[in-house]
């Protein structure tokens, strides 16, 4: 096998689609005569756009309309850098021209500035697949519209069983790591660049078991498709909350029903774009197993459950030291100071606390009250309070609410229980009834 055939099998993409336009700024459109005229109120559009990256490097981008394996068309961006063969066609070609592009898939890290709420933030970090074009040409009559892919790599993750969003088809989804080695002429340097490619295959496909075990080495042939994925995370929640907070002001600024409807559509579109995005994956139609063993659907689900349990155990193991440190430190209980304050103040004043006096009075009552005999005997054994104690009790009971603690303390300390010298006379039943 030649080196070109080996590279084609490793990571190669051939794309055939119609050239489409994309929006540009009005300042850029003023210097470009090939810009497509736009209607009043809309931004100008062009077939080729030039962008400057974070390190001041220039990159050209073009978009093509391509059918998916299941028939739904999508838009894909061609990233061109340097001298790409046939890139001059993009300058002269009109929208709708059928082009053929060849290149490879790249796994890149991107930053979305829409999630930056102030100047100190850069945005939300994410990873996605880009199509890096290496050559462009006009499509011939033998070229079939679509995006064909040839990959060779290793199954990286366990399989998920999902339902296709556009067709009533159950698919098995996994990730395949493709490692591309790059060399240069007249140099012994060898650089390896990994690319994590999302791969899906219909569950009833005969080659599906070859993708259902992590570690299998496979050769894949299929087609690209774009699909919607929901976005979650702290950055997404913050951006959506900021958009929702600004919506009442936009509603109030609308001066007419038509302006309000336009604002509502714009608000719904911005909110939807913050909560979802499009991603690229390969729909495999052929999978050859070069190393490893196939797995059934039940075995793939068991492997995924075991992987999820292992991740949960690992997460708990990482969090356990933090919980131990937090338990040893112990949170400060604010009620401790509230409870201890009266006792500390009473200790400084040299007087016992009200709770201590109340407990002592209750204990004295239990001690002086016999626990035997009928009710008449217990009433006879209970000594009558003195006149001074009774007067003091009624006086303290009339105290205001903010002095309840002082009143209770005064009442408890003022009541004196006289010593019993002789057994008092037992009153008869008439006297008891009269007292009651």
TrEMBL record:
<protein>
    <recommendedName>
        <fullName>Single-stranded DNA-binding protein</fullName>
    </recommendedName>
</protein>
<feature type="region of interest" description="Disordered">
    <location>
        <begin position="364"/>
        <end position="436"/>
    </location>
</feature>
<feature type="compositionally biased region" description="Basic and acidic residues">
    <location>
        <begin position="425"/>
        <end position="436"/>
    </location>
</feature>
<feature type="compositionally biased region" description="Low complexity">
    <location>
        <begin position="380"/>
        <end position="393"/>
    </location>
</feature>
<feature type="compositionally biased region" description="Low complexity">
    <location>
        <begin position="300"/>
        <end position="309"/>
    </location>
</feature>
<feature type="region of interest" description="Disordered">
    <location>
        <begin position="300"/>
        <end position="339"/>
    </location>
</feature>
<feature type="region of interest" description="Disordered">
    <location>
        <begin position="24"/>
        <end position="43"/>
    </location>
</feature>
<feature type="compositionally biased region" description="Low complexity">
    <location>
        <begin position="404"/>
        <end position="416"/>
    </location>
</feature>
